[in-house]
Amino acid sequence: MKTYCRNLIFLFSFFLTTTIKSQEGLPIYTDYLTENYYLLHPSMAGVNLEGIKLRMTSRKHWLDQINAPNLQTFSADARINDRSGVGMIIFKDENGYNSQTGVSLTYAHHINFNDNRARMNKPNLFNYGSINQLSFGLSIGGVQNSLDQTLFDQYDIFGQQDPLISNINQSSGYFNMDVGVSYVNFNYFAHFTLKNVLFSPSNIYGDQVYDFSKNYTSFIKYVASFGYLFFTESPFSFEPSFLFHGSKLTSEKALDLNFKSYYNLNDGYMWLGLSYRQSFDGANYLDGEKLKKQTYQLITPIFGVNYKDFVFSYNYSYQQGNIILGTGGFHQVTLGYNINLFN
Fold first, then answer.
1. 75, 239, 268, 299 - which has most CB atoms within 10 Å?
2. What are the residue ranges spanned by the domains of the chain?
3. What mean pLDDT do residues 291-298 have?
């Protein structure tokens, strides 16, 4: 009974947080570590001096759970001239009966401090040549949020119909905007982005407590990241990095500590990495007679390879702690293609 109670407390806290955050657009996972910082930072659209980057990602949580959260994304970004980059992101995020589908378009303005633009061998994120660049980005998009009530039980234990259950697939749409700034050179990068600026979702849950439609800044998130690339005389290079993100609405904060190692190949390179995510907030649960607090912790090993213009990456995230949701981890696969525009 004690185990059931403590699990119930933890699950309720998790469910409440998930419900509140279900309308906040594209979730922040480890997609950015698969050469795709553009998913988080609009200023990274077209950061490559030339070339087009295409990325597709599929993420599945808890394979042993029915209706477990899953996410699919497609992104494309390109440099269209010396100072301009454009991009597009399409995503579908499903979590039980909740789902959201979104599209965003991005424009980025790049200021290159080098007198002569350096041509890179490949249009990828980690081969900057002699790039020394400050970038500003703006993304504008729309999201369709749905709550499928067709499988809900409309009647309570007394046989009374619940007026909040409409037995339909209820949906609403809204617009969103992200703004960001990045600095990138040959060895390091730094990014800062405000997400959900002027964000005004519709409440489809029938609860006025979570009606933020008139407060356009309630859902603002902030994302900051920094990384440094160390080169050696050998085929190996190393990249430590971190990412900090938080939410104004829930006051949640989390930190990602990342480390990646690259090995140069004749026709590309491969990488291995490890990411550790630590939330600064948590949920209380009962351990015997003691009330304890558990924070959200994820450990994610990463593997990837770039062969010529093709990209493949796989990572597996495992939740740490005394109480976890499901026995399986989170699987993510990324496929990509770099369109080489060099003569």
1. 75
2. 2-339
3. 75
Taking the CA atoms of residue 262, residue 264, residue 265 and residue 269 in that order, the dihedral angle to the nearest 10 degrees is 40
Output DSSP code: residue 68: -
CATH number for domain 2-339, candidates 3.40.50.10300, 1.10.10.10, 3.40.50.2300, 2.40.160.40? 2.40.160.40
The more confident residue out of 203 and 293 is: 293
Place of tokens 């990014």: 191
Contact 27, 92 (CB under 8 A): no
Give the residue from 132, 121, 142, 127 showing the smallest Cα distance to 26: 142
Mean pLDDT, range 99-126, rounded to an integer:
71
Among 70-74, 202-206, 314-318, which stretch is predicted with the lowest mean pLDDT? 202-206
